[in-house]
Design a protein that fits this description.
Blueprint lengths: L3 E10 L7 E3 L3 E5 L5 E7 L5 E8 L14 E4 L2 E4 L4 E8 L11 E10 L11 E16 L14 E6 L2 E6 L5 E3 L1 E4 L18 E3 L4 E4 L9 E6 L5 E6 L1
Parallel strand pairs: 1-10, 3-10
Antiparallel strand pairs: 2-4, 4-8, 5-7, 5-9, 6-8, 9-10, 11-12, 12-16, 13-15, 14-17, 17-18
Amino acid sequence: MRHFLILLSVMLLSVSGHASVVINATRVIYPSSSKFVNVQLVNRSTTTHLVQSWIDDGNPAAAPESIKVPFTLAPPVVKMAASEGQTLKITLRKGTPLAKDRETVYWLNVLDIPPVPENASGGDNYLQVAIRSRIKLLYRPDEIPSPASDIHKKLTLESRSGGSCLKNSGPYYVTVPQIIAWSGGDLKKKTDDNLLKATVFVEPFGCQSVPASIKAGSRYRVTWMDDYGSKKFGVIQ
């Protein structure tokens, strides 16, 4: 049997826990006044890996060469030796018109391609798995205020035909992984009573649909993620 290679790209992998090459961040913030921002990669394996990186505008299935975004990224392809670090430099193209009253979201992709096994011979069959990590890249205009620790106060529940939506009256994207019914107590108490089926990502001044069990007018504890990927808590209704 002839030697063959299966290359599997894992799409929409937001947490790179199984990748050898990892991103040392859960999201990237690009302030509009910055000339560039750096993102650090680390190869935690004992072998050299090939890494391809690119930025997309929200379509995870788009081929890197077909995507048009207002950023450049260097280097787009690099070999990373064992235990080596690599800095990705992201730069906004000059003259790019982006919103000044709210954040704009893009996505940073890092594809980790492991080496061919050393003991593989011409007649062997083997599986080579490439793991793709994808995190948010948030362009943040200097014209909006710095995000506060009580960003949940910009979140409210609004009734709509067929259910409710989580309304965001602030200029920031808000990631909400958990909403639970609330009648008081310790905000940080762990619970598995999550009413969300999947994490909700609410755009600035937008309203994202939530399950029918979450109703406007009732009180809920909401868990949201800050710039560093840490969980924060608050009460909404």
